[in-house]
């Protein structure tokens, strides 16, 4: 049942690379936390945040500017840390058949240039982003809308500039018709799906100028212009109609080195930074309660080269999984901040059947060696390959050591020169051993993770080179479920099927960790695992 590898085209660029480098669905929810009861009033003060220099600030193009985007723009919906979906810029998102959705916007919202945010703003923005020849990096987030393929023909130029699935009803209402029923649509327009953000008409006239001075509809507006490698200053937008931010200003400070940012937080030179992998074991000792570790919709696997006949026997794949001591690796490499994975999707995604992996994700070196022997052993060396330069050396050296010791097979871990080299080889299937594989979902649904790994062109090419029609059909059936509980159960059924073939060992449910200066009293998060900077609480006197 294991499919053979084939090189894949890739059109659905998402947060995967960005996260690597650093590191309840309801169609009728109540009015959102950003509903606007206290619009216009802030708590005062400012914070500074360490970021990777974005280069691209436009939501549909950015790959590392999520924090900036989520400050300058507001999404249609928001998923909080408990997985509850509420409305932000949308008044409602409704459907009778999960295929055609009616989006009604809140009245009175404006972009930072003072122009109104209308239904036409969304339709024009989404059509522009979906237009294939312009190659927006995050265009794939719109791929489920009817007519997307017309703007992205396999050959030649598109014959239209508009998706047939979008229609404006009035200033505050538009409809979205999808290629098929998808009950997860309201979650797909939440905070981290930045391609779904609206842009003002001026942006569509000059995207280069828009990248230099982005104009959003969110709680903070950019002050001045974006200049590469210079801090990006933002201030609270006085006419913002959502929930007022708790601070007056945020400065996003670019760092080329995450460790430098970490030490700058220690020194009080900056307020918030993510924790580089090499500092995870010591972060608690360095910062105490000022270390924030958020559950995240991220999961890592040990990808396997299913095009290599040595990995064809499922018992070989299961033996490799059982020979890995995830708990010890988490303690030593991640300071105990990662959780050994027990399913094929992150625990934070609703309905994830935790524990479904059973014995195959439990450390049992004796059973692992017996299973490998039963399969006829392993011929040659297990050559583990991973992207170099992003702090993964200790992880893959540990895995190689455990496979060598527990399976009696020579195993080595070798880094690539850089991410680009690794990505090119994995996409081409030019790897002859286990490899780095992970996905950080942009919305906390099993759909996003399962599609990305197990649907061809789903988002993470060859992360797990296993694309079976029956798996894709089950995922599509789960997509069609409008009821959240039914959808969760249907996606769990997909995992039952995956367990039979066990195409790759799940490794860790990920967390995203941040440290703060003494000026920060509380750093809140949401379902996507990033800090919610518009709601940060400053210490008294900060």
From TrEMBL:
It comes from Promicromonospora sukumoe. It comes from the Bacteria. The lineage of its organism: Bacteria, Bacillati, Actinomycetota, Actinomycetes, Micrococcales. Keywords: Signal. PROSITE patterns: PROKAR_LIPOPROTEIN (PS51257). Residues 88-457 form the Solute-binding protein family domain. Residues 1-33 form the signal peptide. GO terms for molecular function: peptide transmembrane transporter activity. One of its GO terms (biological process) is peptide transport. Pfam families: SBP_bac_5 (PF00496). GO terms for cellular component: ATP-binding cassette (ABC) transporter complex; periplasmic space. This is ABC-type transport system substrate-binding protein.
